[in-house]
Write a structure and sequence with these properties.
By secondary structure, the chain is of the alpha/beta class. The protein contains 40 helices and 56 strands. The chain has a 9-stranded mixed sheet with strand order 3-2-11-10-12-13-14-15-18, with helices on both faces. Helix 5 (212-228) packs across helix 6 (253-265). It is elongated. The protein starts with 88 loop residues before the first helix and ends with a strand. The relative contact order is 0.07.
């Protein structure tokens, strides 16, 4: 049924006669709302053959109007109630005229006088306004997609509103240095020999220990150099506050520390970033964007690091993609200048000025810079000192990245405030020796250690056999990622093993931090006043609804989290709702943790909008009152406050995936996947989980690196177990599970997985997985409901409904033949054999045919008399050698050329019935010869006429392997038949006698032969002659296969009938010379030319870059009036437009290219010709088409599909649009089957191989209502007629016919009708490596076959992209994706895909696919 609609006006409806809307309006859903203001006519009624204009939509929604025309198509609204007839002045008029209109259609003369009152009323009616463009772009998916209903049993928060949690105050009386730089100066002067930082190499040896004295003096040197020595002139290169990039490897903390403090001393802002190893590092471009937006022009680095950077040819450091131009300064000692004794830095490092900028990569992959002020920096160091109880000269072992996050705050900043000694352990050493940090804690008697749970996990695996380590010196083991779901198991397992080695349970201190809020919370040992640690066992189901429900540990579907300690000193914390305004959460509700403190970041550099949102949030109570006068900073952490005021974190906002109404955390899903035998299968536990939006909802994607030794069997076993685990624990389906080879996922700086880059690669199709499992059937639960077909409205109601709606019946015809030409000539030209004899007699030397070879040279010609004589010879051979009788069928198996034409007329001369058959392909006998044999047998041919070469082929050994060669009928070779005259030329007793049989294999694989009588043959030639204005003086160029349909008629029949000269270009020759056809058109100055889509595609692809060369060779296409593509399908707009645009440079007129339309029952229904308006294009809503409705929309609106008119209807041809089931006539712009009535309709099927019963009524259909007398032929194609504003050749309004597609090919899925080409067009757009695509159905599953034009390892990238695009654009779940090599999809000579052949090949397992993905149900 039609969708609810917004209606602009109930009364006003304009006539299709007086006004044709723009390409966007008036459709089967009768969109009065889409009409533009137009002129109202005041002409008396007699100027209009029908009275539709006067009828109003008073009967809105009445049962008589058709279901398709009762409502307009605008989403969202409801039809306005129709005012009662009594109260509406317009209603009276309409009612009064209803009777008249009904008669007007049946043909009763209409009273031409209309009362002046009615006329006046009509003139005063205002036309509805056309809606503003945005209305066309409302994506009405809410109406279409299933909205997931909330579960009535879902848990809801029941607690009271939480209170803001205050941390302990910052100690005021402590003897803090006034600033970090003051502390550095103090320690550098008073304790110059105290160790500050020890750096280790990959063997674990200490390579360098930086003392406080050295740090101070080197930082001073660097500050002096930066401010005074960078340019030869006296002006400084850098001003205080300028940003400087710090590019240091993870193995060189010493130089980094010097650079960082040197910048602070020089009042410059350090921006630490990762070392770019290649020009295409993961996320490198976004880092470049950050540097550019920060205005960075200088990068500091070390000598060794600079040597390792990629270089340009000049020897300079290469410019990385997306990076601003940088100067590189090496800061090793020898490059720095010593400051004079009296020089002192100006550094005032307190206050709101920016101290440094830390980069942060968001979920989408964009990189932002978090600015930290001097005041925040100092406050953070003091808060950490107080929370961790740091004291002077303590030793800290740091495994983390010292450039950012906790590694920077503890290991570079807070350590200097307290004159601590930091032992920095590089990532490279951890990879070689995961125990190294424990050994260093032991040998340096470190009091504190800073690690991640990953470091604890790897050291557990490596500790066996290590007896001599002791962790008794540790008072704090800070776990920086304590907020991760798997950190608790690492902590517990670590304690289990190392408790016997001196590790005390209270030493383990998980903490939570975020780039925006810095340290959020940290657990403290009891001696620092910390409460005992806690853990919470939470229901996964509750968490997915954002609610805390305590559960028991025995269950699988629980999440166990540990606390991350107390709020930082001097900070306040609250938890606010994730979506919408920052309302405080209830105590049993999960939300985003917010922190208010002097120790948080201050802004995202240069991004004011999101800064306000994140750094200046004002949480409010349920009543809307602010909880504090100070702003809070959002941390991006999800959690709650538990007992003892301990903070619990259950996930990150960046890892949140909202599927339906439930929320899932990426880290939890990773933890579940890791629990499925990770060590056996997943390489180093590397798993990435993220969500992609498909069909307006998040879909979960899991990508894992598999171990190099894993077999295919292992892969699928592991994948299916992971799917089950995630389904049972999280109750959510995984949309796609992909496995990639070990070490191929993009890496983050410290070896983790770069999630946003992985997601980007997945969406771009550059991930290159080696195994993929898609489960769209289980995940995608918001598809629209399958269409329920309503009982059809009867044909009578349909007509009445159209009348009431003021719509004409969709019927159109070409020009009348009687008016166009002398009927004597038509009678004289009734038999083509007579015409040829007449031409041979009157204009014997007039050239009819020129055949070109690949070089463009003429290989054979035929004048009228030559053709006549050759035909006589063939006729003589057939009667004498072949001993054939009148009416026998003869198969003509010839390559394209004049021989074929001569053989055809030879058959007519002796009364035989010719059947043209494409010769078998010598290189492909196995598949082409059986088709030849089948046509010969099915057509009951008594003889085969052919050339010597083909005769040899038909009798060869290779042929014997493909078919039974003993059963061929008589084979006559016409290459050297004697010059004999036929005794008498046969003249058929009646024009209705069979002239020839036209055999063709349809795209659905049905071999159908149609009968063409002599009358139909001459009528066809006559129509084409009139439409294209063909005379003996004309030359036309034909690049078509001459075996069936219009291609055969143009090649063999039309020149003889009209006398014009045909330049014949066999399409096969284009394979060796692609410019042959266009050169011929130019050389012979052809005004009219015909080609097929495959020829057009060859030219577009093969000559795309050669238009300049062709112009040099003198190819000029300005002579072309019309270039027609002969087709039996919907016009391929993209291809014809590309062709026009490409060859515009060679003079091809923009309006020249058009298409023709024919089918089995009538080979030429439409053909543009030389007169008449240009083909029009309309845009229809693809979703309405699926419901067998036409809804016209604006160009570019969502789901719009362009349809081009298929040329003009030929003279003598009548077309009507009939309902596919009721067989009643339909209204203008309604979708139905195209029926045709014309003197050149075929007279019936000779045979339909395979499905005889289905086609019984194709040639003798009658309408079930209305004009039930006319006999029509059913084309089997869906389309619609639309009256346009244009004027046709006869001066009337032009009716455009739009072909939508073949009924036989449509796919019935989910109750809707899909055209394969629409799905294929979407799929081809999905990835650049998809060369071609074809779709078909198999046991209710949609199968998509794609040809991969790329490397085999890229094949599996296509599976997800194909599934996504078909879901997004067509609301269909792909069942099977088959990836094959280029050229596997069979295409016939007309350039049409043979989808049924492909389906048979798939079912018989003959495609040799690269990969077949069965999307799991």
């Amino acid at each position: 049924m039609p969708m609810p609609s917004k209606r602009r006006s109930v009364l006003v409806h304009s006539s299709v006669e007086t006004y044709t809307p723009p390409d966007t309006s008036s459709a089967s859903e009768d969109e009065g709302s889409l009409r533009r203001p137009g002129r109202l006519t005041s002409t008396p009624l007699q100027s209009h053959p029908s009275v539709e204009p006067w009828l109003d939509r008073v009967v809105q929604g009445s049962s008589t109007s058709s279901s398709a025309s009762s409502t307009s198509s605008h989403p969202g609204g409801r039809p306005a109630a129709a005012p009662s007839a009594a109260t509406t002045p317009g209603a009276a008029a309409a009612t009064a005229l209803a009777g008249l209109t009904a008669h007007a259609h049946i043909g009763v003369p209409v009273n031409s006088r209309v009362s002046s009152k009615i006329q006046q009323l009509l003139n005063t009616l205002k036309r509805p306004k056309r809606p503003p463009l945005k209305e066309f772009f409302v994506d009405d998916f809410e109406e279409l997609l299933e909205v997931q209903q909330p579960d009535p049993n879902q848990p809801k928060p029941e607690g009271s509103q939480m209170a803001v949690l205050q941390g302990e105050p910052l100690a005021v009386g402590a003897p803090w240095p006034p600033s970090l730089l003051a502390a550095l100066q103090r320690w550098g002067s008073t304790q110059p020999r105290a160790p500050c930082l020890t750096a280790l190499d990959t063997t674990g040896k200490a390579v360098c220990t930086l003392t406080y004295g050295k740090l101070w003096s080197r930082s001073l040197k660097l500050a002096y150099t930066l401010l005074n020595k960078l340019t030869s002139k006296n002006e400084p290169l850098l001003k205080p506050g300028d940003r400087v990039a710090l590019v240091f490897p993870n193995s060189d903390p010493v130089m980094f520390m010097v650079a960082f403090y040197g910048c602070l001393l020089a009042e410059l802002v350090p921006v630490p970033i990762e070392v770019p190893l290649t020009r295409k590092d993961a996320g490198s471009q976004q880092v470049g964007f950050l540097l550019g937006s920060c205005g960075v022009t200088l990068a500091l680095t070390t000598d060794a690091c600079q040597k390792g950077l990629p270089k340009a040819q000049t020897g300079e450091v290469a410019t990385f993609k997306g990076w601003p131009p940088l100067s590189w300064l090496v800061i090793d000692g020898k490059h720095l200048a010593k400051p004079p004794k009296d020089w002192h830095p100006l550094a005032q490092d307190t206050g709101a000025g920016t101290a440094y900028i830390e980069y942060k990569t968001s979920k989408e992959g964009s990189t932002v810079g978090v600015t930290v002020s001097h005041a925040s920096l100092l406050a953070q160091c003091r808060a950490l000192t107080q929370a961790c109880g740091y004291s002077e000269a303590e030793t800290l072992t740091n495994v983390l990245d010292f450039k950012r996050d906790a590694g920077l705050w503890h290991g570079v900043l807070t350590s200097v405030l307290n004159r601590m000694h930091v032992v920095s352990i590089p990532y490279a050493l951890m990879k070689v020796n995961p125990l190294s940090w424990i050994q260093k804690v032991c040998s340096y008697k470190a009091r504190a250690a800073l690690v991640k749970s990953r470091d604890m996990h790897w050291s557990l695996l490596a500790q066996r056999g290590q007896r001599d380590v002791s962790l008794s010196s540790l008072r704090m083991l800070i776990v920086a990622d304590g907020a991760n779901p798997w950190s608790i198991s690492s902590c517990d397992a670590f304690l289990n093993v190392f408790q016997s080695r001196g590790l005390r349970p209270e030493v383990i201190c998980p903490c939570a931090s975020s780039p925006e809020a810095l340290t959020v919370a940290i657990r403290r040992p009891p001696d620092l006043g910390g409460p005992p640690p806690r853990k919470a066992i939470l229901s996964m189901n509750g968490l997915s609804y954002g609610v805390i429900r305590v559960d028991t540990e025995e269950k699988l579907s629980v999440l166990t989290v540990q606390d991350v300690g107390q709020v930082m000193p001097g900070a306040s914390v609250c938890v606010v709702k994730v979506d919408g305004a920052p309302y405080l959460c209830k105590t049993d509700e999960i939300g985003e943790i917010c922190v208010s403190s002097s120790a948080t970041g201050t802004a995202y550099y240069g991004l004011l909008g999101i800064t306000k949102n994140v750094f200046e949030t004002v949480p409010v109570t349920a009543g809307g009152a602010p909880v504090s006068d100070r702003p809070f900073t959002r941390t991006g952490l999800l959690g709650f406050v538990g007992p003892d005021n301990l903070v619990f974190v259950v996930g990150k906002l960046d890892g949140l995936m909202v599927v339906g109404v439930r929320r899932h955390n990426a880290d939890d899903v990773v933890a579940t996947a890791l629990a499925v035998e990770p060590m056996k299968f997943v390489y180093r536990g590397r798993i990435a989980v993220f969500s992609v939006t498909v069909l307006h909802d998040d879909r979960i994607v899991l990508v894992a690196e598999q171990r190099p030794d894993a077999s295919e069997e292992d892969s699928f076993q592991w994948m299916s177990r992971v799917l089950q685990a995630i389904d049972s624990i999280h109750q959510v389906g995984v949309y796609c599970l992909a496995l990639v080879p070990a070490n191929t996922l993009p890496k983050a700086p410290l070896g983790g997985i770069h999630i946003s880059e992985t997601k980007q690669r997945f969406l771009e199709g550059t991930l290159h997985p080696c195994n993929v499992l898609m489960c769209p059937h289980t995940c995608v639960t918001n598809l629209p409901k399958p269409r329920q077909k309503q009982p059809e409205v009867g044909p009578a109601s349909m007509i009445v409904g159209n009348l009431v709606a003021g719509k004409r019946i969709a019927q159109a015809s070409g020009r009348e033949l009687a008016h166009l030409e002398d009927s004597d000539q038509a009678r004289k030209f009734l038999f083509l054999a007579d015409v040829l004899q007449w031409r041979a007699h009157t204009t014997p030397d007039h050239p009819l045919f020129l055949l070109l070879n690949a070089k463009g040279t003429v290989t054979s010609t035929a004048t009228c008399v030559q053709l006549h004589k050759r035909a006589e010879r063939v006729a003589a051979a057939l009667t004498e050698k072949g001993r054939l009788n009148v009416g026998d069928h003869v198969a003509l198996v010839y390559p394209p050329g004049v021989d074929l034409i001569a053989a055809f007329y030879g058959c007519l001369y002796c009364g035989c019935v010719p059947v043209t058959v494409r010769p078998p392909h010598p290189q492909n006998l196995g598949t082409t010869l059986p088709t030849v044999k089948m046509i010969v047998e099915v057509s009951k041919s008594a003889c085969v006429l052919t050339t010597q070469a083909v005769t040899r082929l038909l009798r060869s050994k290779e042929a014997a392997a493909a078919v039974d060669i003993r059963t061929w009928p008589t084979i006559l070779d016409t290459d050297d038949i004697p010059k004999r005259k036929v005794a008498s030329i046969f003249r058929p007793p009646s024009p209705d006698v069979l002239a020839y049989l036209d055999f063709s294999v349809s795209t659905t694989g049905i071999l159908a032969g149609v009968k063409m009588s002599h009358a139909a043959t001459s009528a066809l030639c006559r129509s084409i002659k009139l439409q294209c204005e063909l005379y003996p003086s004309r030359q036309i160029a034909i690049c078509l296969d001459p075996y069936c349909g219009l291609g055969f008629a143009l090649w063999c029949l039309c020149s003889v009938y009209s006398g014009h000269q045909s330049v014949l270009v066999p399409p096969l020759e284009l394979e060796s010379n692609v410019s042959l056809w266009l050169s011929a058109v130019s050389q012979y100055r052809a005004r009219v030319t015909f080609c097929s889509y495959s020829v057009m595609e060859m030219c577009t692809r093969g000559l795309g870059t050669q238009t300049g060369v062709l112009r040099m060779k003198g190819v000029n296409l300005s002579c072309v009036r019309t270039c027609m593509v002969v087709a039996e399908e919907r016009p391929r707009i993209t291809l014809t437009q590309s062709f026009s645009k490409l060859f515009k440079d060679l003079g091809l007129p923009a309006r020249a290219v058009s298409t023709t339309f024919g089918c089995r029952v009538n080979v030429a229904i439409c053909l543009q010709g030389t007169a008449g308006p240009d083909p029009t294009t309309v845009y229809v809503d693809m979703r309405a088409l699926r419901h067998d409705r036409v809804r016209l929309v604006e160009r570019g609106s969502p789901h719009s599909l362009p349809l081009m008119e298929s040329g003009k209807i030929l003279p003598g041809v009548k077309v009507i649009i009939a309902h596919t089931e009721t067989k009643g006539p339909l209204g203008d712009s309604h979708l139905g089957e195209i029926w045709v009535s014309s003197p050149h309709n075929a007279t019936g099927y000779y045979t339909v191989y395979g499905e005889e019963a289905l086609h019984a009524d194709h040639f003798s259909a009658r309408l079930s209502f209305g004009d039930t007398q006319t006999v029509w032929a059913r084309t089997g194609y869906l389309g619609f007629l639309r009256r346009t504003e244009l004027t046709d050749a006869s001066g009337g309004r032009h009716d455009a016919l739009y072909v939508v597609g073949s009924l036989d090919e449509t796919l019935e899925l989910r109750g809707m009708r899909y055209h394969p080409i629409d799905i294929e067009t979407s799929v081809i757009r999905a990835h650049r490596n998809i060369a071609e695509c074809a779709v078909f159905t198999w046991t209710n599953l949609l199968v998509v076959v794609v040809e991969l034009d790329g490397l085999e390892q890229e094949a599996l990238d296509l599976v997800a992209l194909v599934t996504n695009v078909v879901l997004e654009e067509h609301y269909l779940v792909v069942g099977v994706v088959v990836i094959v090599d280029p050229g596997v999809i069979p295409i016939n000579s007309r350039g049409e895909k043979q989808r049924m052949h492909l389906r048979d090949g798939f079912l018989a397992d003959q495609l040799d696919p690269i990969y077949v993905a069965y999307n799991m149900r």
